[in-house]
């Protein structure tokens, strides 16, 4: 069972990448699978309930959980991933909220995915562990445009590429960094992969979405490309030298 066939594009007006608590309460986006559904109270739903309960327990201590419950044709696969800097308590809250909300939005779909600022949760009746998910993807961007887009785009790509190279060596497949753009401005960046991917596949995933910068965020002061397997975000912000 596959998810949506095409990426969706979401513009969040004047969002702040650093104001995590502002966005954390509501889902950023979701996809429901088509066209196959499961029967209410049937064996697939029983397995899905067990799987989401398992992810609630397994994910918070490390920020990542994955598992599979049942046997074909009612087997379900799922994972949950929390942002690399999220606390265990915030991670648990997000995963529980995600599991509850996605069942409301996709009540009988065999596959679904939902993203919050602090986490994502995904499940399917097809095994997907270790595979890059480019079918489920959305963009977010700040509506403000910088004064010199070409130069800024180059700096953004440079920072995100540095982080893509760095993320391979991190156990959480999560990396952040910043770059000075002038005397009073910095560029902040973040990249992260779902930990069912190998480090090499993670880098391939990040490199792929960096290639979408022109489509997503050309000259924008902040932006994100978010897929089912990896994501990046960047934002410029002012600072004062000590």
Automatic annotation (TrEMBL):
Q: Which UniProt keywords apply?
A: Repeat, Secreted, Signal
Q: Which PROSITE patterns match?
A: GNK2 (PS51473)
Name the Gene3D superfamilies for this protein: Gnk2 domain, C-X8-C-X2-C motif (3.30.430.20)
Which Pfam families has this protein been placed in?
Stress-antifung (PF01657)
| Leader peptide range in chain numbering | 1-24
- In which compartments does the protein localize? Secreted
Recorded family membership: Belongs to the cysteine-rich repeat secretory protein family.
**Name listed for the protein in its UniProt record:** Gnk2-homologous domain-containing protein
């Amino acid at each position: 069972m596959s998810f949506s066939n095409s990426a969706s594009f979401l513009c969040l007006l004047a969002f702040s990448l650093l104001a995590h608590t502002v966005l954390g309460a509501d889902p950023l986006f979701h996809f429901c699978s088509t066209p196959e559904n499961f029967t209410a109270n049937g064996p697939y739903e029983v397995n899905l309930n067990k799987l989401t309960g398992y992810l609630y327990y397994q994910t918070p201590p490390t920020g990542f959980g994955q598992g599979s419950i049942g046997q074909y044709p009612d087997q379900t696969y799922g994972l949950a991933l929390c942002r690399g800097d999220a606390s265990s308590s915030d991670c648990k809250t997000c995963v529980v909220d995600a599991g509850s909300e996605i069942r409301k939005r996709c009540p009988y779909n065999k596959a679904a995915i939902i993203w919050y600022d602090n986490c994502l949760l995904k499940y399917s009746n097809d095994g997907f562990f270790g595979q890059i998910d480019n079918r489920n993807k959305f963009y977010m961007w700040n509506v403000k445009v910088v004064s010199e887009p070409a130069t800024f785009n180059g700096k953004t790509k440079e920072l995100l590429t540095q982080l893509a190279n760095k993320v391979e060596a991190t156990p959480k497949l999560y990396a952040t960094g910043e770059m000075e753009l002038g005397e009073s401005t910095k560029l902040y960046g973040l990249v992260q992969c779902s930990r069912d991917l190998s480090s090499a596949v993670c880098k391939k995933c990040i490199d792929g979405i960096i290639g979408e910068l022109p489509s997503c965020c050309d000259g924008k002061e902040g932006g994100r490309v978010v897929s089912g397997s990896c994501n990046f975000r960047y934002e410029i912000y002012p600072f004062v030298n000590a």
